[in-house]
Design a protein that fits this description.
The complex is a heterodimer of chains A (206) and B (242). With 206 residues, chain A is mainly beta. Chain A has four helices and 13 strands. Classes of the chains: A mainly beta (206), B mainly beta (242). Chains A and B meet through helix 1, strand 3, strand 6, strand 8 and strand 9 of A and strand 2, helix 1, strand 4, strand 10 and helix 2 of B.
Chain lengths: 206, 242
């Protein structure tokens, strides 16, 4: 039926493979080629709001950290605006809200600096709790995985969040909530992503 | 007056499932629970915007972007070009397309690649460009070589270029691979064959495009990419729940 209506079909996804860094983060592959690599500065120098660091690992079904994973993050600024024509309002000069993050090849730890996002508008009414959108690719991942990270110090907003509330299994909501701590004066949120097992992170078909 | 609405639900029948045991690495890296279906909110409908300040004009020429002046990499010189469209057959303009690939001998410039084929000193193996106002893009490169990989002991990847595309929304984000028509390794590759739909594999297979080649210089392959499309909201769409 869709053929009769002349729609096209989306191109099929294929794994990013083990050498994804060559294309998306060549410095990590071991060479310099571009004047600037993309996605290293998420918030820019002028962003208002609380400066935070987000750290974690992606854990496979054997319980081992994935060392060749690449994550992309997409977020609103502190006022809840995305840097996009449909993003709800203006953002600070230099605020991009998009980041590209790779792991340490030895430990599988990743981390990035940004600002804590504000609440964003809901689909029709109300608001969504502050959150980061993640997209995760790696060797062995056939199609990018979408998930969200929320903040454990936003108890009230999280309790009202329409997406968290959509998750029928209440205990699984906790897999999306990063844990806050402070280290050397830096506000750090820990967000481990688990691909399988009892603590499997909630992934979305968006 | 219509306004752009949410994206069409992703047609999973053209995509590989997460768990594909013949591609062994997927076994421990595939979620087991069902994905939770989410209607698009503002954080899915939006996505990063790129411009010409982000990249350089020569980034799409892999024959020169890592070569010493006056030199070029060994291999079959090709133009890889096409359009980025959405499911509605609308071009996707000004979108970032990034590619990476092995050299003509099947070796990647990556510190984790230890294949015995040599590194090509004049080839980095990555490029990037923005589509024009009609969704058109092009790269110049060498045709990548096939190479062996550890899965079963005698698996070989068909020649392929990895392709990353953004679209205008975070839900359109896609990484795929471009294969080349006539390659006998395509039907026996465990990664290609994660895709359940033969037509979807065909759609990832670039076609020889003799008319776009430069005679006595560079041969051309055509590779069109389709991203998800979105509804036009004809009526106000009030939904339950939120």
């Amino acid at each position: 039926m869709s053929e009769q209506l002349n729609y096209l079909k989306e191109s099929a996804s294929q794994t990013a493979g083990p050498y994804v860094h060559i294309g998306l983060a060549p410095g990590a592959a071991g060479f310099d080629i571009y004047k600037q690599e993309l996605g290293w500065d998420i918030a820019g120098p002028n962003a208002k709001g609380e400066r935070i660091r987000v750290e974690g690992r992606v854990i496979d079904g054997m319980g081992a950290p994935i060392k060749d994973v690449l994550l992309e993050v997409w977020q609103a600024n502190a006022e809840g605006h995305h840097a996009h024509p449909e993003g709800g309002g203006p953002v600070e000069d230099g605020f991009r809200g998009w980041g590209r993050v790779i792991t340490d090849f030895e430990t599988g730890e990743w981390g990035f600096d940004t600002v804590k996002p504000g609440k964003t508008r809901g689909r029709n009414v109300g608001t969504q709790a502050p959150h980061l959108n993640f997209w995760i690719v790696a060797r062995g991942i056939n199609i990018g995985l979408n998930t969200r990270m929320y903040f454990d110090d936003e108890v009230e907003a999280n309790a009202k969040d329409p997406v968290l509330n959509l998750i029928e299994w209440e205990h699984r909501r906790a897999t999306l909530v990063a844990k806050r701590s402070e280290r050397d004066g830096v506000l750090v949120y820990r967000f481990d992503i688990t691909l399988q097992g009892e603590d499997e992170t909630v992934f979305f078909d968006v | 007056m219509t306004t752009p609405g949410e994206f069409y639900q992703r047609d999973r029948s053209v995509h590989p499932p997460a768990l594909t045991p013949n591609y062994k690495t997927s076994v421990a890296r595939s979620p087991r629970y069902s994905l939770i279906s989410l209607q698009n909110s503002v954080s899915e409908i939006t996505g990063p915007v790129f411009g010409h300040n982000d990249i350089d004009a020569g980034d799409n020429d892999l024959l020169t972007n890592y070569a010493k002046a006056g030199e070029s990499p060994i291999g079959e010189r090709i133009i890889l070009h096409g359009r980025v469209l959405d499911e509605n057959v609308k071009p996707v303009p000004n979108t970032l397309v990034e590619v990476w690939q092995a050299n003509a001998g099947g070796r990647y410039r990556h510190k984790k690649d230890t294949y015995l084929a040599p590194i090509e000193p004049n080839f980095g193996g990555c490029g990037r460009t923005l589509t024009d106002e009609n969704g058109y893009y092009y790269f110049r490169t060498v045709k990548p070589g096939a190479y062996p990989w550890r899965n079963m002991v005698n698996n070989w990847r068909p020649a392929h270029v990895h392709v990353s595309v953004f679209g205008s929304s975070f839900v359109q984000r896609l990484i795929t691979q471009c294969y080349f028509e006539g390659d006998p390794l395509i039907p026996i590759c465990p990664i290609v064959q994660t895709i359940p739909d033969p037509d979807a594999i065909e759609q990832l297979t670039a076609k020889l495009d003799l008319k776009a080649s430069i005679p006595l210089d560079t041969i051309a392959y055509r590779f069109d990419i389709v991203l998800r499309g979105r509804r036009s909201t004809l009526f106000e769409n009030r939904l339950e729940g939120n």
